[in-house]
Structure prediction request, 406 residues.
Amino acid sequence: GEGKVYYLNFKPEQADDWVDLAAEYTAETGVPVTVVTAASGTYESTLKSEMAKTEAPTLFQVNGPVGLASWKDYCYDLKDSEVYKNVQSDDYVLKDGDAVQGIAYVIETYGLIYNKALLNDYFALDDAEIKSIDELNNFEALKKVADGIQAHKDDLGVEGAFASTGFDSSSDWRFKTHLANLPLYYEYKADGITSSPAIKGTYLDNYKQIFDLYITDSTCDPALLSGKTGEDAASEFALGEAVFYQNGTWAYNDIKDNEVADEDLGMLPIYIGAEGEENQGLCTGSENFWCVNNASSDADIQATLDFLYWCVTSEAGTSAMADKMGFVIPFKKAKDSTNPLITIANQYVADGKTSVDWCFSTMPSEEWKNGVGSALTAYAAGTGDWNGVVTAFVDGWAKEYKLANG
Prediction:
């Protein structure tokens, strides 16, 4: 047909992979596919700008119900599409009544990736307070291990226990969003809710103690973190300079083929000192829902639907998403990944551990995340105090929620 596809991608860490996959589809079908990736932390503003153009994205994404509320009038109903017919269950779908307005294209898992060989070297130290991975199942134990590694970093041949907690835009999402999910998850759990117009900050002391551990037992001085990048952190871990690295299953491609063998990769839950965390699993969920622009031409809508179907059913598409992007995709023809971190994540579920739900889709705005990130950066650098983080988290939430919901 005459149709074409324009995908505004949310995930900068997979930008090149999507460009490659789009080129492969175009070579196979002749259908033009353009992929543009918004800079980290700018997706919402970029989407607003691009949707106002004549050549607007035919494919975009929202982060869940909060994001959908802003864009539902632009969402094509996917209920009769082949993509929807192939999704594993409606657990991975955003609906407005009977209309299917978004479909999750990736289920992701994150935690503390660790180097088994280096951790075993620590366990073997005469004065190690923790002697095995089985004992490392709560914050108190994690702190003992991290402090011990930091004290013996020269003996162990590392630069620090944790890879740098960078606050460059390529890295800060790991802490203003992914780490911030933990106190949010436990507050929701304690209050028996799944969203809120106002956050109390019940677990912000727990947030502080894990963040303090990250920046104290680190490969670099806290004052340098504002300029540290995601690439820096990945490199530090991949080269064996750090024992722990907060990230997810998608980070495997940045780690492999360096100093850490696949068999030496492990992943722990992010422990913050919450009650019952000994049975905590990894953080698992999605904030990535595909939406098709209903204002696009019929030809472009069909071209976009065809591209999505190919991505989640073809050998080329499913292999790229599983192996190159590190995704677990919730579709019937999903390919098993060769990624060892995904195997570890699946084992936590098989062992009956309680997965930590992603609460990202309830975060009121990108601006809220940015406010938390700025406050964390100032705190790490010593130019701000923890009260600034609490204010950004609690007061910032109420403010941004009100702006978003009137």
Notes: The radius of gyration is 21 Å.
